[in-house]
Every structure is written in C-alpha cells, then in structure tokens.
Design brief:
2 domains; 2 strands; Helicase, Ruva Protein, domain 3; 127 residues; 30s ribosomal protein s13, domain 2; 7 helices
C-alpha cells in the first residue's frame, strides 16, 4: 500500500479511485489531481514509479487541504459557530438539524434513537 498524506491508499485500485480514500478528496478533486500530475488515469497505483508517486504527493500536499488539517479546520468552524452563539451554533450544540429540516417527525439520524416516555400511553387512553 502506498502512503499519501498519512493514509494507506490501496495499490490494486486505479489512481482516481484510490485517491478518494484520503479525507477531503472526492470525485472531482481526484480527477483534477490526476490531470495536474499528467498521469494516465487508467493506471493502477502499484504500476506507478517512485517519481510519479512523489509527484502525486507533492501536488496533494502543496495544493489541497486534506486529512488532519482539513478535519481541524472543519472542527474550528463549527466551534466558532457555537462560540458566537448564532442559530447554527445553537443547533450544533443541541445536536439538531441546522438547515431548516423538520424535527417533529424524521431527523432520527441527528436526534438519535427514540426514547419512550413513561406513562404517556396511559394518559392518552384516559382521554
């Protein structure tokens, strides 16, 4: 396995797909990196020479924010929202959806599993 930006990238996959194992590199960025490095996108990672691997590493390190640095920046952005106490920060703090989605129903992923409330069913039956 080749090591790029601190991540073990699988050798048996094509370059374009292997680069996506790095946090912060998706479809568009991986295609862009392959184009910038002037490599054949159909080559597998194990078929690359050391100089070609070095070229890939240099392009990623120089031009893109990936892995730990990107994670740190995202965490700082969220923390800033929480610190200034804006609406989005409050939603982050309460672990609720922050882009206007409804929460009366749905939002289970963000709110977690349903918690039953004791005595609620009996109260509904008495009415």
């Amino acid at each position: 396995m080749a090591r790029i930006s601190g991540v073990d990238v699988p050798d048996d996959k094509k370059i374009e797909f292997a680069l996506r194992y790095i946090y912060g590199i998706g479809i568009t960025r991986s295609k862009e990196i392959v184009r910038k490095s002037q490599l054949d996108g159909d080559k597998r990672l194990r078929e690359l020479t050391e100089s070609e691997l070095l070229r890939l590493r240099e392009i990623i390190d120089r031009d893109y924010l990936v892995e730990g640095d990107l994670r740190r920046e995202v965490r700082q952005n969220v923390q800033r929202l929480i610190d200034i106490n804006c609406y989005r920060g409050q939603r982050h703090r309460r672990n609720l959806p922050l882009r206007g989605q409804r929460t009366r129903t749905n939002a289970r992923t963000r709110r977690g599993a349903r918690r039953t409330v004791a005595g609620r069913r009996r109260a509904a039956l008495k009415k």
